[in-house]
Amino acid sequence: MTHAIVNPDGLHDPVPFGYSHTATVPAGTELVLVSGQYGSAPDGAVVSADFTEQVKQTFHNIGVALAAHGLDLSHVVQLRTYVVNHDVSKLGPIAGAVRERWGTKPPTQTLIGVASLAAPDVLFEVEALAARP
After folding, report:
1. How is domain 4-132 classified at the CATH fold level?
2. What is the pLDDT of residues 44-57, one digit of tens each?
3. Which of 32, 52, 81, 107 could form a disulfide with 93 if both were Cys (CB 3.0 to 4.6 A apart)?
4. How many angstroms separate the CA atoms of 10 and 116, rounded?
């Protein structure tokens, strides 16, 4: 892994919430940017109206996008997460999906509540930044 995740003393433990406070990427490292992915099937249709199912499919899709570059989720340094009509009940499914994929070293992540996304049935979208070793 080319990047380092650091959760400094003096800040709360963010890992249970599905993110880390900081990450470093060495100079000269190639970055791979993944545009906003959502809970879509290969044909672009949303897989389910269920928020949790969309979260799971979205992270799967990020993995597919990274695999096209010979990378996987372990290479992700940063996530930008967009949640339609965000409320605290949505944190559990998001944090659970992140823990399932990254364990105790999740990438940095910013969650942004939005009124809507590209299509009315899209409830969750994530952009990713990955570092190639």
Report:
1. 60s Ribosomal Protein L30; Chain: A; (3.30.1330)
2. 999 999 999 999 99
3. 52
4. 35
In the chain, where are the structural domains located? Answer: 4-132
pLDDT digits (tens, 9 = 90+) for 93-114: 999 999 999 999 999 999 999 9
Q: Report the alpha-carbon distance of residue 19 to residue 27 in Å, rounded.
A: 23
CA dihedral (87, 88, 90, 95) positive or negative = positive
Query: DSSP labels for 72-115?
Result: -GGGEEEEEEEEET--GGGHHHHHHHHHHHHTT-PPEEEEEEES
Spell out the residues 6+ positions from residue 120 whose beta carbon is closer than 8 angstroms to its own: none
Residue with tokens 């949790």: 52
